[in-house]
Amino acid sequence: MAIKVCHITTVHQPFDNRIFFKECASLRDAGYAVSLICAGAASQEREGITIIGFPGYRTRMKRFFKTSFVDAYRVARNTNADIYHLHDPELVWMGLRLLWKGKMVIMDVHENNAAAILSRPYVRSKFLRQLLSLIIKNLERILLPFFSGLITARPDISALFPHLHPVTLRNFPVLPDYDSIPDLSLPKSKLTLIYVGGATAIRGTRELIRAMALCDQAELWILGPFESGSFRQECEQLEGWNRVKYLGVVEASEIFSYIKAADIGVITFLPVPNHVTTLATKPFEYMACGLPVIMSNFPYWKDFFGDSALYVDPADPADIAAAIRKLSNDHTLATAMRRKNLQLARTEYNWQQEKKGLLELYHRLSSRIIHKTTR
Question: Model's pTM, two decimal places?
Answer without folding.
Answer: 0.77
